[in-house]
Design goal:
By secondary structure, this protein is mainly alpha-helical. The chain contains 18 helices and 7 strands. Among the domains are: 122 residues, Helicase, Ruva Protein, domain 3, CATH 1.10.8.350; 87 residues, Lysozyme (Orthogonal Bundle), CATH 1.10.530; 55 residues, no CATH class. Helix 2 runs antiparallel to helix 3 and helix 11 packs across helix 12. The strands form 2 sheets. A 5-stranded antiparallel sheet has the order 4-6-7-3-5.
């Protein structure tokens, strides 16, 4: 899924696709002549039972999109730290419009909360970040993007099933060859891939169709149902800001470790305001910028959100914004150590990789693999193991 910052709004789509694409199968070999590839995809569709009267116009409309490939290669926004990223996305205007939409569609949100157990704050957050409450839903031709990414050899097994899902929607009259959306093929106000629309889409307004581009009830019900399909636990919290003591065992922080909330409380962790929202649940301590920065309790539902988007900073921001729309205060930014520059982060990744850690591509992005390696090396060197890379760590390595 995406957030909306003009052209940067398109960059996070690949993570959504990676998360949401449950079926991964290569039907046609990638690469080579695009026109030949289109013909082979059409032949596969007809072997699946689609009539030529449907496959003919559908595949004839497909064109290769260089613009999609260029969008797929951009990665810069992933390098932004949580405080900078969240301050850029969470404006007063976006808060005000979120609250206004909560009032305007109160009956819809109430029905979703009652039937699916997904809170309005979280849905409003994704609606805001994905498409600015429906104002900008993407300007890429969906068919062209899906066919181009199916032909490209990076992730054909992810996107080829989406083409056939779009074809099924087309056969039902719920997709057109000029449909526009995100560069990775997501459609509508909450940006769902065709296969997810088929499997999770709900007709929220009762007109017999799932119209995610034009129907707010359809979009919100479908987004909530997709979260339920990912494993959302009804009527449970997902994130809460906390205050952590200076002597917390930092090596126990991070999303890979969870403890009963009561145990965290015994270690001195406190809610920043009010009481713990999930006192009988397990939780993980989320420190997006290390022990000196903002701190949150991540409840079990937080991990479900990674099925929506796998970007750490995007997800932390969207989850926090959801709590903000439900009354949480502005988070305490603390005084975290300054983020490493792009060059420093790449140098750190190289050093970690040389020590045998799997940090993935040397790209300057503080992803899960790099965070885990940082925390392990901090522990080895006797540094506070909060998984936040610092100049001290880089120098020590």
């Amino acid at each position: 899924m995406r957030f909306l910052i003009t052209t940067a709004a398109l960059i996070l789509a690949a993570n959504t696709a990676l998360a949401a694409g449950s079926q991964r199968k290569v039907y046609v070999a990638c690469g080579g002549s695009f026109s030949s590839f289109v013909g082979k995809m059409k032949a596969v569709a007809e072997r699946q039972g689609f009539p030529s009267s449907v496959t003919g116009p559908f595949f004839a409309a497909a064109s290769y999109s260089d613009r999609t490939i260029k969008a797929d290669r951009r990665q810069g926004i992933f390098k932004t730290d949580f405080i900078s990223f969240s301050r850029k996305l969470i404006s007063q205007n976006r808060i005000d419009r979120g609250r206004a939409n909560s009032r305007k569609y109160n009956s819809i949100f109430t029905a979703i909360e009652r039937q699916l157990g997904v809170p309005r704050g979280l849905l409003l957050s994704f609606w805001a970040f994905e498409t600015d409450y429906g104002a900008f839903q993407g300007d890429f031709n969906t068919l062209d993007s899906l066919m181009t990414l199916s032909h490209d050899c990076r992730r054909p097994g992810l996107f080829q099933p989406q083409v056939f899902a779009a074809l099924e929607l087309y056969a039902k009259g719920d997709f057109t060859t000029n449909t526009q959306g995100a560069w990775a093929g997501e459609i509508g106000m909450v940006q769902m891939l065709p296969k997810d629309i088929l499997e999770r889409g709900l007709d929220g307004d009762g007109d017999g169709h799932v119209k995610l581009k034009t129907s707010v009830p359809d979009a919100l019900f479908s987004g909530a149902n997709m979260l339920r399909g990912f494993g959302w636990r009804p009527n449970e919290p997902w994130m809460q800001e906390i205050v952590v003591p200076g002597n917390l065992p930092w090596e126990a922080t991070g999303l890979t470790t969870s403890k009963p909330v009561a145990e965290w409380a015994r270690l001195g962790v406190k809610p920043r305001s009010g009481a713990f929202e999930g006192p009988n649940l397990r939780g993980s301590i989320l420190l997006p910028m290390g022990r000196k920065g903002p701190a949150f309790m991540a409840y079990p539902n937080y991990s479900v959100l990674f099925e929506w988007n796998q970007s750490f900073v995007y997800l932390a921001t969207a989850a926090y914004f959801g709590t903000r729309l439900q009354g949480a205060p502005v988070y305490n930014p603390g005084n975290p150590d300054k983020p490493l520059s792009d060059g420093q982060m790449k140098a750190l990744q190289k050093k970690l990789a040389a020590r045998g850690y799997d940090v993935g591509k040397i790209d300057g992005i503080l992803g899960a693999g790099t965070r885990a390696a940082v925390q392990a090396e901090q522990r080895r060197l006797g540094l506070p193991a909060d998984a936040w890379p610092t100049r001290e760590l880089l120098n020590r390595l």
